Structures are given as structure tokens and as C-alpha cells.
Amino acid sequence: MDTSKVIDMRFILLWCCIIMEVVHGxxxxxxxxxxxxxxxxxxxxxxxxxxxxxxxxxxxxxxxxGNPTVVQIARWANNTDTGIIAFGRTVVVDDTLASxxxxxxxxxxxxxxxxxxxxxxxxxxxxxxxxxxxxFTQGEYKxxxxxxxxxxxxxxKYRELPVVGGSGIFRLAQGSVxxxxxxxxxxxxxxxxxxxxxxxx
Length: 201
What we know:
The chain is an alpha+beta fold. The protein folds into 2 domains: 1-30; 32-200, Allene oxide cyclase-like (AOC barrel-like, Beta Barrel), CATH 2.40.480. The chain contains 2 helices and 9 strands. The longest helix has 26 residues, at 3-28. The termini are far apart. Homodimer. Keywords: Apoplast, Secreted, Signal. Residues 1-25 form the signal peptide. It holds the Pfam family Dirigent.
């Protein structure tokens, strides 16, 4: 048998397997693109009878300089990793929350811990687990909050943060916030976009 034909067949078979895996993986994955999530919520909200509020928000996280909005409060003593995503590192957050026109309308306040002990083997990279509130201090939603409880891996382009409650206009809220990092720096500074789908009464 011609060796080149055997190699060609193996190469073709390998590529077929790779393509099948990619297609199969995509078919089983949940599409977290904000447009896809919006379609899902549009169908669900119309059947449910509750209100659906869609928000496009931005948050700036500052870990560097003399006026940070992210401050470390704890670290596992036995961990020799001094990086910003070290397992056990816990921080408090008081980031700005801006509207789509970049006007400051509130704060993102909460706490998160890096909870991936072996980030090199995690499919989506290191992840944090956090509890946050979006606190609206200006504009249409002034005095209201949205509460989030989430696992937040850093590698995916889009991350879904579950809405577990709220107050004011968003009392008894449920929904999802799709998080996308617009820009990030090695020192921990970041600009994040939130596309929020809030179901409430």
C-alpha cells in the first residue's frame, strides 16, 4: 500500500474528527452572546407577564494607584502565588457603574474570591466566586439595586452572572447579566461591559 495515501487518509480522518468535535461542542454549548440571551428573555418574559428591563452598563475597576476601587482583604497564607488571581485571594469592590452614554449612575459593590485552585487545568481558566450589588444612585433607577451571585471565569468572552434579587424598582428581580471585558491590564485595572436582562414586577 502506498504510504503517502495512508498518511493522507490519516490526515483527513484527523481533520474530520476535529471538525466534528468543534461542531458538536458548539451545538451543546449555551450561546452567551448578548443578542442570543436577549431573544431567550424576550420569549420568556412575554409568556410570563412580568416586566423585562434591558440595560447596557459599564464598570471601571481600578486596582492600581493611590485611589483603587478594588482592595485585597485576605489571602491564603500558604499560597506562594502573589498574582492577582491567586487561589484564596479575596477582595472588596466599589467600582463605578455607568450608563450606555458613560454617565456615572451608581456603583458595583461587593466581594469576590479566586476559587480555582488549579487554574492551569480549568477549562475556562481561573475563576472567582462573587456576591455583588449594582447600586443605582442617579437617574431612572435611583434608589434601586440588582443583586448578583456568580461564578466568573476569566477566559470566555461572555460570562453569565445570575441575578438573584433586587430592591426598589427591581424588587424580586431575576435574570442574567452578560459580562464582557472590554479592556484589561496586568495590574488588574479593567473596563467591563454589562448587558443586563432583568425580569421583575
